[in-house]
């Protein structure tokens, strides 16, 4: 039976003989159902119409972007460490050329994903690389549309991964939203793998925070302060976002200062 994929959010569901009746992720107020109604595709169909582009971003970091855009349009990242490789976030397409390229780079030993909008075909990615464990925060358990033994739920505020990488639960956009801290990134100054929180703006000297990006629902002041509090102890100079913004989608330097300044600006704006 095919494992149907929602065309709007890109999340793959457990195999069924017929397409699911609905997509709970798209029906949530943070997302949306396509104006023409719920639509589905399959991995085989996606392989025939799309491709992945793997691009080196800096030493030991590669982005994975699906072209043309599919679903939300986010990118994933492969981080190479001396203790193995970690896939951060995920895209809906996985095919033989992508697998071959990533195996050239050392494969995937662990997977971690910021939040449910990017779960996509995570189980397919895990199986393609020997059942690599997928680390999700336990608060997001209800949003997993394709349960599988490869998914490892963790609880609490921080979880160590291989190679010095660390997951930090910030909450905000989702209750179990997690970022990945890469201490070796940015030439050893540290990099924040942010997903879409904080979201890199068109001006890469600014970031923002939202409960819903497509529906323009702001994050409240209490949640903003918590995000900043959770990020404050982490040393990072660079921020990598989920999207190509002005061709790059990064805050190249002074990332910590950008987060603090942008959060202060945001709080002033919502206070009125």
Q: Can you describe what's shown?
A:
The protein has seven helices and 19 strands. By secondary structure, it is of the alpha+beta class. The chain has a single domain (5-271), classed as Metallo-beta-lactamase, Chain A (4-Layer Sandwich). The chain is globular.
Task: Summarize this structure as a short list of keywords or feature phrases.
7 helices, 272 residues, alpha+beta, Metallo-beta-lactamase, Chain A, 7-stranded mixed sheet
Secondary-structure element sequence? EHEHEEEEHEHEEEEEHEEEEEHEEH
Query: Per the principal axes of the C-alpha atoms, what is the gross shape?
Result: globular
CATH topology type? Metallo-beta-lactamase, Chain A
Radius of gyration equals 18 Å
**CATH architecture grouping:** 4-Layer Sandwich
CATH C-level category:
Alpha Beta
Strand order of the largest sheet: 3-4-5-6-7-8-9
In helices, the fraction of residues equals 10-25%
Whole-number mean pLDDT = 97
- Counting DSSP E segments of at least 2 residues, the number of strands comes to 19
Number of domains: 1
Distance between the termini: 53 Å
Layout of helices and strands:
Blueprint: E1 5-6, H1 24-27, E2 40-41, H2 43-49, E3 51-58, E4 61-67, E5 76-81, E6 84-88, H3 96-104, E7 110-112, H4 122-128, E8 134-137, E9 151-154, E10 158-160, E11 166-169, E12 178-182, H5 185-188, E13 191-195, E14 199-200, E15 207-208, E16 210-212, E17 217-218, H6 221-231, E18 238-241, E19 250-251, H7 255-271
Parallel strand pairs: 6-7, 7-8, 8-9, 13-18
Antiparallel strand pairs: 1-2, 3-4, 4-5, 5-6, 10-11, 11-12, 12-13, 14-15, 16-17, 18-19
């Amino acid at each position: 039976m095919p494992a149907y994929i929602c065309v709007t959010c890109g999340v793959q569901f457990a195999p069924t003989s017929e397409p699911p009746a609905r997509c709970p992720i798209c029906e949530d107020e943070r997302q949306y159902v396509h104006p023409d109604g719920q639509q589905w595709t399959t991995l085989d169909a996606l392989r025939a119409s799309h491709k992945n582009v793997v691009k080196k971003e800096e030493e030991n970091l590669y982005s994975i972007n699906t072209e043309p855009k599919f679903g939300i349009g986010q990118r994933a990242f492969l981080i190479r460490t001396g203790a193995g490789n970690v896939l951060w976030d995920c895209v809906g397409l996985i095919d033989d050329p992508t697998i071959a390229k990533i195996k050239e780079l050392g494969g995937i030993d662990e997977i971690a994903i910021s939040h449910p909008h990017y779960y996509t075909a995570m189980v397919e990615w895990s199986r393609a690389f020997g059942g690599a464990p997928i680390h999700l925060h336990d608060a997001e358990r209800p949003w997993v549309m394709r349960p599988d033994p490869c998914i490892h739920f963790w609880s609490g505020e921080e979880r160590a991964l291989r190679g010095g990488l660390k997951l930090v639960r910030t909450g905000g956009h989702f209750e179990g939203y997690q970022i990945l801290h890469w201490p070796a990134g940015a030439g050893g100054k540290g990099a924040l793998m942010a997903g879409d929180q904080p979201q890199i703006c068109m001006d890469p000297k600014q970031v923002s925070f939202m409960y819903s990006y497509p529906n323009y629902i702001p994050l409240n002041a209490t949640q903003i302060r918590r995000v900043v509090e959770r990020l404050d102890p982490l040393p990072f100079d660079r921020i990598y976002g989920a999207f190509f913004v002005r061709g790059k989608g990064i805050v190249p330097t002074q990332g910590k200062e950008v987060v603090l300044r942008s959060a202060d600006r945001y709080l002033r704006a919502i206070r009125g």
